[in-house]
Amino acid sequence: MAEQGVAQVWRRIRAMYRIEGNICETCNTYYFPPRPVCPTCRRKGKLELYTFKGLGKIYTFSIVRQAPEDFKRQIPYVIAQVELDEGTRLTAQIVNVDPEDVKIGMRVRSCFRKIKEFGSGGIIVYGYKFEPVMKVTGHE
Amino acid sequence: MVGIIGYGVYIPRYRIKTTDIAEVWGDFSGSIGKGLGVFEKSVPGPDEDVATISVEAARNAVKRAQIDPRDIEAVYVGSESHPYAVKPTGTMVAEAIGCTHDMTCADLEFACKAGTAGIQMCMGLVKSKMIKIGLAIGSDTAQGRPGDALEYSAAAGGAAYLIGSKNPLATIEETVSFTTDTPDFWRREGEDYPSHGARFTGEPAYFRHVEAGAKSLLKKTKTTIDDYDYFVFHSPNGKFPVAMGAQLGVPKEKLEDSLVVRQIGNTYSGSAMMALARVLDLAKPGSKIFVVAYGSGAGSDAFSITVEDAIEERRGEVPTVDDYVERKTYVDYATYAKFRRKIKALG
Amino acid sequence: MSNDVAIAGVGISKFGELWDKNLRDITLEAGMYAIFDAGVPGADIDGMVIGNMSAGRFTGQEHLGALAVDMGGLGNIPAYSVEAACASGGAAIRQAYMAIKSGEHDVMLVLGSEKMSDVNQTEAMNTISVASDWEWEGMFGATFPALYAFMARRHMMEYGTTEEQLALPTVKNHANAVHNEIAQFQRAVPIEVVMKSGLLADPLRILHSAPITDGAAGLVICRADLVKKYTDTPIYIESSEQRSDTLALHDRKSITTLDAVVSSTKAALHEAGLELKDIDVLELHDSFSIGEIIITEDVGIAKKGEGGKALEEGITEIGGKFPVNTSGGLKARGHPVGATGVAQIVELCLQLRGEADKRQVDGAEKALAVNIGGTGATSIVHVLGR
Prior knowledge:
Chain B is α/β, with parallel strands linked by helices. Chain B contains 13 helices and 14 strands. Chain C is α/β, with parallel strands linked by helices. Helix content of chain C is 36%, strand content 18%. Chain C has 13 helices and eleven strands. Chain C has a nine-stranded mixed beta sheet, with helices on both faces. The two termini of chain C are 13 Å apart. The relative contact order of chain C is 0.20.
């Protein structure tokens, strides 16, 4: 029996571990996750791989207080849309901060964390979360 | 000359005071911290493990070394709490920091000296010119059985070292090891928590091996204790390394800077490497550092290290051990138990 | 304007946690009620479409088209299910509309059905959240309520929408549902209770959110020139329009406007030759109360940012200028995902036929329904007229 999720997760490892997306050189738009087709240029688009710097700010957020099994242990946790410096937005948890202190506009940087696991015997999915920039992220 | 071309650490944000743990188990004397020399320990969050800690430490190391991660040709992660029993943490780390596929990798276990064993392996590969740069990581999210003495000190953290020969921040002149079959502390496959021989873990284990490793290193390098400016001994608690230092005739001040165990506990495979990192954060070029790591089972790895000029150029870019030590949020025992999955029903 | 397609009959099951009924039971019920209401002989029906989001995950059953035709004894007519997340019902109506308009079919049965309580709440939440971008939103911990909470927080920041205003759609919809005998909840809820209910994802609370519901609804739709054969109170589908937007909320330009709703509503009104002021009664998709506020703005009832104000001023009450969700909406009537789009049309038909009892909007002649999928990646709008 094939363990569930294995291939699906594996295909996304580069994108999830290092926030690797792409940029359409025709219209200079950054995409994350990487897109097979530039929605603006379609056939005229020229997509190249791009690794995001991992810095951005919080566009909107919510504190999740009821969640499915996979995330129960982390409740309450902060989930947010982060607007990366390159202009693209993505959805990720905000960690290393007290939920009361999170604000729209807060500057954040990506870190490497466990996203979920497929049960105690299944594979562990790692990926990006974001934390406020501070001394220990190498910023003042 | 082979040496450390970059290093980085990571300590999770959460702490629990040893007095809080003691009170749960009925000890309200408030003296546990003094007795062990450990006042609080680091606790990993529910979404952290050896892989995530190793990646953060490794990213810091790469930043400090100012190398292209594609030049790393070996990755070894030493731990006693790898996320998988079978599937090397090193593979996740390599992918996450941007290594190519043309590299060698394996996970190591030798209790608290798995990370330093990795350093020795990288040294061999670099010295023999088989690789240019190797990455050795010691990282743990160690667990103590609830109510056991080790619960006060078992902590989480990791340190990553890039070993190479070009422009090292600190050269490693010599390394020796001393290995025996000594059952002081072990964990059987499938068991949640380790077991240990209580007082047996002292004299016949820790002290015997650290002393033997130290003496062997002094002999090989033809040096004496006085030739060194800093000393780093594996720190299972705040008492053992101090006692070891006294036994070897090490002046107290030369050991002080390495005793980060007092504030974060024993990070097992990360312990000696974290303590060394703290010294490297402070040491002036030209200083000599004497390191002896110890792993139960048992063995010691000893290193003679000289700090180079290059280290000063690379300070300030990457957070120091103290930056991480100072970044903390306290949790109570219930939250700690929830995070550490000590509550079975939560799965 | 299209006067080619008409609704001959409507049917709807009870909405709620229906322990003693399975998916087949409720689907059959809704279909039969619609057929009886239309007075159409089963043999006249030449095709069927059923809107359903996830029977496979909720009950293990797929291939619902064949199942429904079999259960209803409708012979060997063509049938299949369509899926557009929470807009599956609207999508099914659209399929039938296009099939009849094109001349391929004459009389069709449209069903919408979902049986959600056969799995536990956690499973149900997981299943619903695949209406979002599962890989890049859901998997990172963004629950479906969290995505709408993102919208709510931005709406509060950009337009000053208050917590009180956020509670108003629930208060209104529950008050309306008191008079709707098939609604899941038929009790009024005071605003203080809404505002104190448990938090799902700040700032959204349990009572801001549509429930997990079992239910089904059905319509008999036919060529307009045939409808008088079956009923004296035909309702005409004057337009059917649909627009799409990015799947992930984080790929939208703004998350306080649903572009797909704006464009599909404009297109539907234009196609029907009408303006918003001609519409007498509306069903707007309120999976969360912020959804109703935003859609109230996006269809043009209120200026952008003033959706909350419109509710405060009673504009969308039953006696107001644009009554919204006289049925109780998704919040109080219930939200069996695939059935909702069809249930909206059932309510509007009852309104236009003057059969809405104590919920009746006097003299209602034109109606409009907005049925969206996920966080607005799909929007389907129907305009109905007497």
